[in-house]
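To the wet lab folks,

You asked to see what we're planning to order before we commit. Fair enough. Below is the target structure as tokens, and below that is the sequence we designed to fit it. If anything looks off to you, flag it before the synthesis order goes out.
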């Protein structure tokens, strides 16, 4: 028996002259939480629709549970879908909404009610079966919509940006609840989002798409630490970015010139002297030092600057350091009892190692 619940093999979808999805291949492991991440218009929702059967690929094959489903209508595929617009039945109770699919399938009432109550327990809504949807919070309504799908025991649950209508705090809560729920029920989740924090927090694996192309698939920490190209590096996580030509190679490092700064970075198989490249350095990789500390030989890149602003975020603060020449970088500073935070106007040094940067040819 295959351990792959969904497999896309070289699928392509065009709308007129627009190639929405271009030769994409993906394997989704059974029981995993898999996210497709990318900006609006990258092809992620079209990809989801080809899995669900609402769109058919022009080329390539779609497999669900090892079975080729090209041409199989949505209602005959073992998938269910949760949209941002939940489409709950407003005049039905929560129990009736959750059990609607079972009722349509002819499941006896007693058995149906027992399964509904079990599912409401799983989604943390026990005792709320007699309420109407408008008597629930947005997060509770979201869980009702998910329960309505999961009770039909699909091979795969598809979620198309389901948290987009929720406020920030509720979204943060739902991210944790969704991951916990997926782990508990064991159903394969395929989640579509443009929000990198959702994908990184919840997913076992993430596929990054842009302009119809699949750029990289990997675990969240792999995408963050070892992005395949400059788009993934810039889209996944926060970075300071610089652009310029590689002037020369020095002691195993490539030197990128972003006039008037020279930045040492790792070499890359595709980097050539004279070619334009993009360099990324994560804010947490940069060390913030007092200007009195003097030069530190531990850091390949060191620059004097001035604190332009400090933004507090609980235990972590973001310091914006003006290096001059219209260049401001972000540095993450961890707050501790014996380390004072920088203050606006303070003269500082910033430093980081070449190997902590990421450099890609354009």
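Sequence we intend to order:
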């Amino acid at each position: 028996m295959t351990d792959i619940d969904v497999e896309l093999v070289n699928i392509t979808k065009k709308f007129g002259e627009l190639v929405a999805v271009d030769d994409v291949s993906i394997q989704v492991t059974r029981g995993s939480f898999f996210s497709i991440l990318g900006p609006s218009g990258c092809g992620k929702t079209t990809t989801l629709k080809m899995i669900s059967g609402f769109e058919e690929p022009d080329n390539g094959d779609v497999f669900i549970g090892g079975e080729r489903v090209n041409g199989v209508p949505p209602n005959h595929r073992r998938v269910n879908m949760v949209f941002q617009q939940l489409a709950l039945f407003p005049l039905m109770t929560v129990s009736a909404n959750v059990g609607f699919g079972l009722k349509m399938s002819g499941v006896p009432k007693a058995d149906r009610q027992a399964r509904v109550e079990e599912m409401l327990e799983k989604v943390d809504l026990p005792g709320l079966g007699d309420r109407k949807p408008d008597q629930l919070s947005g997060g509770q309504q979201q869980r009702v919509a998910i329960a309505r799908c999961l009770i039909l025991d699909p091979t795969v649950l598809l979620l198309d940006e389901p948290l987009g209508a929720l406020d920030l705090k509720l979204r943060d809560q739902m991210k944790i609840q969704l991951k916990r729920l997926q782990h508990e029920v064991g159903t394969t989740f395929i989640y579509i989002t443009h929000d990198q924090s959702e994908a990184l927090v919840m997913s076992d694996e993430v596929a990054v798409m842009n302009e119809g192309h699949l750029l990289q698939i990997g675990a969240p920490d792999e995408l963050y630490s070892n992005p395949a190209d400059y788009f993934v590096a810039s889209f996944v996580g926060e970075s300071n970015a610089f652009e310029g030509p590689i002037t020369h190679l020095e002691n195993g490092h490539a030197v990128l010139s972003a006039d008037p700064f020279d930045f040492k970075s790792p070499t890359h198989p595709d980097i050539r002297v004279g070619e334009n490249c993009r360099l990324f350095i994560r804010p947490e990789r940069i060390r913030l030092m007092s200007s009195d500390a003097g030069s530190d030989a531990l850091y390949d890149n060191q620059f004097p600057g001035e604190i332009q602003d400090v933004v507090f975020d609980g235990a972590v603060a973001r310091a914006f350091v003006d290096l001059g020449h219209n260049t401001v970088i972000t540095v993450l500073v961890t707050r501790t009892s014996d380390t004072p935070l920088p203050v606006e106007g303070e003269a500082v040094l910033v430093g980081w190692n070449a190997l902590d940067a990421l450099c890609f040819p354009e």
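Structural context that might help your review: The chain has two domains: 4-234, 240-361. The first strand starts at residue 4 and ends at 15.

Thanks,
Computational group
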